[in-house]
Structure formats: structure tokens, C-alpha cells
Inverse folding.
């Protein structure tokens, strides 16, 4: 009989178990590893003993509460914390072994191989009093003080334990797991690292090793969702998915990726098969010393693919409940939608939108529209629709007449549903600048977006670039540097900083930054465009044109037209080459829209005043979003003094001046 509950008998049958180098003597309350005593808090030890002695089955949460806490009323967070501490302690000795698995909606199971050792009757040991640390999980979690109402007490913040058995697709089960990973990361950084105001973290893309054919858009969408959810926690700075993917190119070592991203820790997670079931395993790794900070494993079968949507917010908040205000708690607890299918469509849409090309935008739009058809009140999906139409406009795939009204309507719908939605304000600010040329509205909306989401680099990147274009380069640099702190490896962030430095006259620094971006991202066209401008300013025409040729070929996806123009240049027929280039673009424009400022630039290379002005007028008419850059492009300076050109410049400046 177990001595777990202290039955007071003078002799007891010793219950001795061994597993993975550990020896557990239940009757004496002693856990050792390779002969050395392992120190455990009493509740942690009791949960371990109960799981080991009931290892042949799944043990429910209520059963553990009854056995370990008995008549003491505690919330679920006490058990969550206890299991986390147990896993952390065991992993410190055997980091490659999974000991406790979480079975969603059902409970926990001890899965390491256990051998039960036959022993004789013996007196109960008194050594447990020496081994066990005299502190309890319930004291640590339930007796947190309420600092004048600023902090939330777990007993009143979290609802009582309720479980709703439902069955849904794989993606929704993964959504439940997101909350648990957020809890683990949030718990570590907010409870274990008080010396540093902010901790930085990266989330590795979810690796699908399951053979379940989970498509890439869902796994990366889930990764992005975890990143965004962690980003709501005060004290955490989370690297965006795009930067993590860039850092991971050609690199399999998680710690090397973490060092590239300049983060404190990395969440590494995998979807893998396990004896006919699917398992998600996740771990938090400390980049500096390579230690595993926590590890959790979750098993779910094909017939048990949905866990309670409400648990996502609960599990996230439990990890941070002693550290967040009521307002922050509400933000962390908020769900985007209660419709799991709509959320999966939204995640896929986010992934395809992040590709930033025509195919990506088209697929993203289809998924976002599917999401709002399933849940018309899904504000983030409406904001996603706005971002797609804005992208189609900004990247030159559609004219303003076929994109901006749709973007504007989607933004207003999103804000009507959720007036505090940062991404909607950011999208509306971009429309105000690129299309409306309304600087007052631009600035107001960007400042609101940043206020609502201060650790999101995107609105700062956009605002910093637009401040630079508006001639407020020092203010723009402030925003761009803050974005750099949040996402130091962002290629668009570094390129925008280089553009800002170029406009400020620091061509050497701008060139250095652009060359570094090109080394890490040779297929990214924007730094080549800006580098061409720098060389033009230095009167190095040949180097300038080479960069423009490279940028154009990257944007085209092939170099056929550029190669023909280069051949003309090489044979001394520069003017003929530029004329053929312009005429080819004009023929293409007659069939399909793209920003006509492209044609104006080629005409400007040839100092062809008539055709340059013709296509600048066309750009103005269609509200070409790229037209604003002519305020600073030196290629157009030959037109200075032309009445029509000067009037155009004045019109652009008046719209975006402070």
C-alpha cells in the first residue's frame, strides 16, 4: 500500500519503480537519479507518484485533483504549473526522454518505460522530510496579492473547470496547442527572468513529420498565429515569421538560427506520428547556453481532433495571470472568432498574403473571403481582405480603381467590428498616404496603430518609410530604428533604413546596408533599385544601370527583355536600347496594368522629356502608388524648371506635407 497519504502504519510494502535512470520509492517519498537525490516540491512529487502508479491508463485532471489536492479547492492553473515543474525537473536529467504526455480533453499519461521492483516489507523512511522542499504550488499560484486591483487573482479571473467534448479537424486541435505553448513561453519569461525588462523569442516553423499531409499554409499559418499570440504578452518581443524563415534558409541548427535572430530563446515544435496517433512535441530552448527550458508533448487521435476553443485563452492567461492587468488579461483572452473553420481559413490566408506576390494575394483573398463567409463578424479576416487589396495596389498588380475602394470598405468593416484593431489602422494609414495623399490622416492612423500594438514592427516600418518620403527623415529614422529593435534581421526594415540614410545624404552608410541586404537576400529587388539611385547620385551611370537591370529582371522573373537592352548598351547603342525598353513596356501596358511610373523612369534614363512627362501624367491620373518617390529620385532632375513638372512636384508635396 502506498504511503502517499501518510497512513500511519509501522510497516509498509515498498513500492519501488525505475524509469530512464530514475528510481522512485513511493513508500519513502524518495526520487533519485543514478543514486543522486532529486529534489521535488511535495505536490510535484505526489503527482509524479500518482502518474507512475497509474501508468497503464490516462489519468483525468479531476482524478489528480481528488488524489493530490483532495478537498482543497484549486483552479486548473495549479495542476498545469505542477505538471510543467515535473517535466522541467525530469528533463534536466534526461532531456531526450518524454515522460508525461498531455491527452487533450482527457488528461495525462506517464509514457516512459517503467519497471516495478519487488521489495520486502520495511519501515517507512523519514528521508522524505529532508528531500522535499517545503513549498506548495497552490500557495505560489493562488495566494498572489491583488496590488490595488492592478493584478488579477487567479481565483476570480479564471472560470471553473469545464470541458466540452467536440470533434473537429486537425487544424483546430493544433489551435488548442498554441495556447499551451504560449503558456510555457510566457511562464518562463515572466516568472523566471525578472532581471530583464524584455525577453526576445523566435518561433520555429511547425515541422510536419506526421505523414498526415498537413499543408504548408496551415503549419506556417499556425506558426504565425503563435507568434502573434505571444506578441500580446507584455515583456516579450517576438520575431516575425518572415524573418525567422529567412534566418532558417540553409540552416538546420535551431541555436544558430536563434543567434542570427538575436533572441534569448526559441520555441521548437513538431507534428509527428506516435503509434497510430498524432503527437505535437514542443520545447523552449535557451540560445545562450543550449539548455532546454521546458518541454511538452500532446497526443491526439484522428477521432479526437478538436479541443475547446475557449481553452486557448485560458491556458495562455494562466501562464501570465500573476503579471497582467485586467486590461491586458482581456486582450490575451480575446478570441478572433469562435468558428474553427473560419480561423483555419484565416491562417491560410495570412500565410499566402505573406508571400507578397500575385499568386499569394489571390489565394489569400479566397481564404479571407471564405473566413468572413463562415463568420461575417470576423474583424481580422476583414482586415486581411483590406491588406490583400492594398497589396495588389501597392505592388502594382491592380490599378487604384479596382483595389482601393475594396480595401477601404474592408478596413471600415473591420473597425466597425473591432474599433481597437491595430492592423486595420495600419492599412487605412497606408491608403491615406499612397492613394489619398492625406498626411494628417496618415499620421493619426499610424500613431494609433503603434499605440495599439507597440511591439509590432510592421506599422513602424511603414510609418518610418512614409515619414522619410515626406522629408521628415529624422523622425522616420526613429520609427525605423524602433522597428529594427523588434525585428533586427528584416530585409525590408534594413532596406528602408538605407533609403532613409540615402535621403539624408549619407550615401556611404546607405550603400553598406544595401550591399549587406543583397548578400543575404540576392533575389530581393528593392535594394538593387535603391543602390542604382545611389550610383546615379555619384554619376556612376554604368554601375547605376547595372543595378536597375538587375532589379527589373528580378521583378520580371526573367531577364529576356533586360538582356536585349544590355546587348544594345554593350554595342554602343544606349539610346536605341532605352527606346526599345520603353516601347516594350508601352505595348505591355496597353494589354495589362502595371504602375506607369516604370515607363516614366525608363524614359527619364534617356532624358526623353516628352515621354517622361507623358507617363508621369498617366501615373498621376491612376494614382500610381510609386509616384511619390519622384520627389527624391535624381533621375528626374533634368526636368527641373519645366512648368508642368514643377506643378506636379508641388501637388505631391502639398498632399504629404505636415
Amino acid at each position: 500500500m502506498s504511503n502517499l497519504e501518510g497512513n500511519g502504519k509501522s510497516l509498509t510494502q515498498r513500492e519501488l519503480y525505475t524509469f530512464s535512470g530514475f528510481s522512485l520509492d513511493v513508500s519513502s517519498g524518495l526520487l533519485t537519479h543514478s543514486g543522486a537525490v532529486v529534489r521535488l516540491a511535495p505536490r510535484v512529487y505526489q503527482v509524479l507518484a500518482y502518474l507512475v502508479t497509474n501508468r497503464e491508463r490516462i489519468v483525468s485532471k479531476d482524478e489528480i485533483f481528488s488524489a493530490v489536492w483532495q478537498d482543497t479547492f484549486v483552479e486548473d492553473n495549479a495542476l498545469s504549473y505542477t505538471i510543467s515543474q515535473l517535466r522541467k525537473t525530469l528533463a534536466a536529467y534526461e532531456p531526450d526522454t518524454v515522460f508525461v504526455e498531455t491527452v487533450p480533453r482527457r488528461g495525462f499519461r506517464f509514457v516512459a518505460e517503467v519497471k516495478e521492483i519487488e521489495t520486502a516489507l520495511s519501515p517507512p523512511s523519514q528521508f522524505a522530510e529532508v528531500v522535499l522542499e517545503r513549498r506548495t504550488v497552490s500557495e505560489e499560484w493562488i495566494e498572489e496579492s491583488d496590488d490595488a486591483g492592478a493584478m488579477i487573482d487567479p481565483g476570480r479571473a479564471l472560470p471553473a473547470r469545464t470541458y466540452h467534448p467536440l470533434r473537429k479537424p486537425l487544424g483546430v486541435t493544433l489551435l488548442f496547442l498554441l495556447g499551451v505553448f504560449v503558456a510555457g513561453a510566457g511562464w518562463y519569461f515572466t516568472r523566471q527572468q525578472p532581471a530583464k525588462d524584455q525577453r526576445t523569442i523566435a518561433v520555429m516553423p511547425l515541422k510536419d513529420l506526421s505523414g498526415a499531409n498537413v499543408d504548408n499554409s496551415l503549419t506556417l499559418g499556425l506558426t504565425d498565429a503563435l507568434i502573434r499570440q505571444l506578441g500580446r504578452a507584455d515583456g516579450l518581443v517576438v520575431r516575425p515569421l518572415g524573418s525567422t524563415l529567412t534566418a532558417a534558409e540553409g540552416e538546420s541548427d535551431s541555436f544558430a538560427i536563434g543567434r542570427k535572430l538575436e533572441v534569448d530563446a526559441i520555441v521548437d515544435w513538431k507534428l509527428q506520428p506516435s503509434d497510430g496517433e498524432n503527437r505535437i512535441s514542443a520545447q523552449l530552448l535557451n540560445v545562450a547556453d543550449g539548455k532546454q527550458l521546458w518541454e511538452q508533448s500532446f497526443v491526439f487521435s484522428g477521432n479526437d481532433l478538436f479541443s475547446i476553443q475557449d481553452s486557448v485563452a485560458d491556458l495562455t492567461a494562466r501562464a501570465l495571470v500573476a503579471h497582467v492587468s485586467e486590461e491586458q488579461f482581456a486582450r490575451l483572452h480575446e478570441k478572433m472568432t469562435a468558428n474553427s473553420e473560419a480561423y483555419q481559413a484565416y491562417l491560410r490566408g495570412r500565410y499566402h498574403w505573406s508571400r507578397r506576390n500575385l499568386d499569394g494575394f489571390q489565394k489569400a483573398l479566397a481564404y479571407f473571403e471564405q473566413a468572413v463567409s463562415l463568420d461575417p463578424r470576423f474583424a481580422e479576416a476583414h482586415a486581411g481582405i483590406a491588406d490583400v487589396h492594398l497589396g495588389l495596389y501597392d505592388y502594382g498588380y491592380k490599378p487604384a480603381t479596382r483595389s482601393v475602394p475594396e480595401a477601404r470598405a474592408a478596413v471600415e468593416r473591420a473597425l466597425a467590428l473591432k474599433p481597437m484593431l491595430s492592423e486595420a489602422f495600419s492599412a487605412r494609414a497606408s491608403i491615406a498616404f499612397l492613394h489619398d495623399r492625406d498626411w494628417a490622416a496618415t499620421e493619426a492612423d499610424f500613431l494609433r496603430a503603434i499605440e495599439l500594438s507597440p511591439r509590432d514592427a510592421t506599422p513602424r516600418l511603414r510609418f518610418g518609410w512614409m515619414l522619410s518620403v515626406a522629408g521628415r527623415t529624422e523622425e522616420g529614422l526613429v520609427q525605423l530604428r524602433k522597428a529594427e529593435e523588434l525585428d533586427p534581421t528584416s530585409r525590408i526594415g534594413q532596406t528602408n533604413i538605407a533609403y532613409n540614410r540615402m535621403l539624408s545624404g549619407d550615401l556611404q552608410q546607405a550603400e553598406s546596408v544595401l550591399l549587406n541586404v543583397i548578400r543575404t537576400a540576392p533575389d530581393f529587388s528593392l535594394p538593387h533599385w535603391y543602390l542604382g539611385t545611389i550610383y546615379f547620385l555619384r554619376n556612376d551611370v554604368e554601375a547605376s544601370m547595372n543595378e536597375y537591370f538587375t532589379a527589373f529582371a528580378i521583378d520580371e522573373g526573367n531577364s529576356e527583355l533586360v538582356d536585349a537592352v544590355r546587348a544594345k548598351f554593350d554595342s554602343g547603342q544606349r539610346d536605341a536600347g532605352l527606346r526599345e525598353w520603353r516601347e516594350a513596356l508601352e505595348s505591355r501596358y496597353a494589354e495589362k496594368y502595371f504602375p506607369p511610373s516604370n515607363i516614366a523612369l525608363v524614359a527619364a534614363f534617356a532624358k526623353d522629356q516628352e515621354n517622361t512627362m507623358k507617363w508621369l501624367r498617366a501615373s498621376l491620373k491612376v494614382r500610381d502608388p510609386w509616384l511619390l518617390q519622384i520627389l527624391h529620385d535624381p533621375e528626374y532632375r533634368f526636368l527641373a524648371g519645366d512648368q508642368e513638372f514643377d506643378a506636379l512636384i508641388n501637388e505631391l508635396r502639398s498632399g504629404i506635407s505636415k
User: Anything to note?
Assistant: The longest strand covers residues 265-274. The CA atoms of residues 600 and 612 lie 5 Å apart. Confidence is low (pLDDT under 50) at residues 1-13, 119-168, 190-195, 301-324.
